[in-house]
């Protein structure tokens, strides 16, 4: 079943590849959060890449699913409590700091001028 | 006096050639917008230059093959994980935060340049 390259097999593999890519992205960002100094980050990023590369040639769908779930569990366990998020993004320090004022509201600058002037 | 007028009639200063080169899109009015805070969007050339610099400094990439049209996996022979690394490097370069789904779709220099150019907060 999993040996033949049917459409369902390819669809599952594609979904798994996308999960792996998103997991690698989040793990890499997390590694950068933990290892702030760049030389440490490069070392940790290489180790992370080695771990992903070691399982590159697995073909069985169920094994891949189990490995992805295990990887996501490890990622959840090691998530940084205070990650660096770009300020204007959701979760950052500048997010919704200056929201756009609601439309229709206008300040009338009449400086106290009265009607009988 | 007549000599001066005759000389002046024959002298033509090449003022027009400066604006005729077309290097700036609005030659008369560009200096009026220089100090406005709404003018800080990146120009397309700047985006292209910075994106190509980031891609060229990736260790697994051959710098001579990098053009603005290059596809990371097909033309440069990179892996999908390398793709993820390049997108992260672009995020760091332009101080962007790209959502995971969008970042997954960025596959080539073209898409990257378009996405960054159209992003309002690209720095």
UniProtKB/TrEMBL annotation, chain A:
Subcellular location: Mitochondrion inner membrane
GO biological process, one term: mitochondrial electron transport, NADH to ubiquinone
Complex 1 LYR protein domain span: 19-72
Entries under InterPro entries matching the protein: Complex1_LYR_dom, Complex1_LYR_NDUFB9_LYRM3, NDUFB9
Topology of the protein relative to the lipid bilayer: Peripheral membrane protein
Domain of life, source organism: Eukaryota
Pfam families noted in UniProt: Complex1_LYR
Entry keyword set: Acetylation, Electron transport, Membrane, Mitochondrion, Mitochondrion inner membrane, Phosphoprotein, Respiratory chain, Transport
GO cellular component: mitochondrial inner membrane
Function noted in UniProt: Accessory subunit of the mitochondrial membrane respiratory chain NADH dehydrogenase (Complex I), that is believed to be not involved in catalysis. Complex I functions in the transfer of electrons from NADH to the respiratory chain. The immediate electron acceptor for the enzyme is believed to be ubiquinone.
Self-association and partners: Mammalian complex I is composed of 45 different subunits.
Family membership: Belongs to the complex I LYR family.
Protein name: NADH dehydrogenase [ubiquinone] 1 beta subcomplex subunit 9
Organism of provenance: Hibiscus trionum
Source taxonomy: Eukaryota, Viridiplantae, Streptophyta, Embryophyta, Tracheophyta
TrEMBL record, chain B:
Pathway given in the UniProt record: Lipid metabolism; fatty acid biosynthesis
Swiss-Prot/TrEMBL keywords: Electron transport, Fatty acid biosynthesis, Fatty acid metabolism, Lipid biosynthesis, Lipid metabolism, Mitochondrion, Phosphopantetheine, Phosphoprotein, Respiratory chain, Transit peptide, Transport
Keyword field contains Transit peptide: yes
Keyword Cell membrane: no
Source taxon at top rank: Eukaryota
Protein's cellular compartments: Mitochondrion
Record-level GO cellular component terms: mitochondrion
GO MF annotation: an example: acyl carrier activity
InterPro entries, alphabetized: ACP (IPR003231), ACP-like_sf (IPR036736), PP-bd_ACP (IPR009081)
Primary localization class, coarse: mitochondrion
HAMAP family: Acyl_carrier
Protein name, UniProt field: Acyl carrier protein
Organism of provenance: Hibiscus trionum (Flower of an hour)
């Amino acid at each position: 079943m999993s040996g033949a390259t049917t459409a369902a097999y390819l669809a599952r593999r594609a979904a798994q590849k996308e999960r792996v890519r998103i997991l690698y992205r989040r793990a890499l960002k997390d590694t950068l959060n933990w290892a702030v100094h760049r030389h440490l980050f490069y070392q940790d990023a290489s180790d992370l890449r080695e771990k992903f590369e070691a399982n590159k040639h697995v073909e069985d769908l169920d094994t891949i699913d189990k490995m992805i779930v295990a990887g996501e569990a490890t990622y959840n366990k090691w998530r940084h409590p205070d990650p660096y998020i770009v300020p204007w993004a959701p979760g950052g320090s500048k997010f919704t700091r200056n929201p756009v004022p609601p439309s229709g509201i206008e300040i009338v600058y009449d400086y106290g001028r009265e009607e009988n002037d | 006096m007549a000599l001066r007028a005759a000389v002046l009639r024959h002298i033509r200063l090449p003022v027009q050639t400066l604006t005729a080169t077309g290097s700036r899109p609005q030659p008369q009015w560009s200096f009026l917008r220089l100090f406005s805070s709404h003018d800080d969007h990146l120009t397309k050339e700047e985006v292209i230059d910075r994106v190509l610099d980031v891609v060229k400094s990736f260790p697994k990439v051959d710098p001579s093959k990098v053009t603005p049209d290059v596809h990371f996996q097909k033309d440069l022979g990179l892996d999908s994980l390398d793709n993820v690394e390049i997108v992260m490097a672009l995020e760091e370069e332009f101080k962007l935060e790209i959502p995971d789904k969008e970042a997954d779709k960025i596959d080539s220099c073209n898409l990257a340049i378009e996405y960054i150019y159209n992003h309002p907060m690209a720095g």
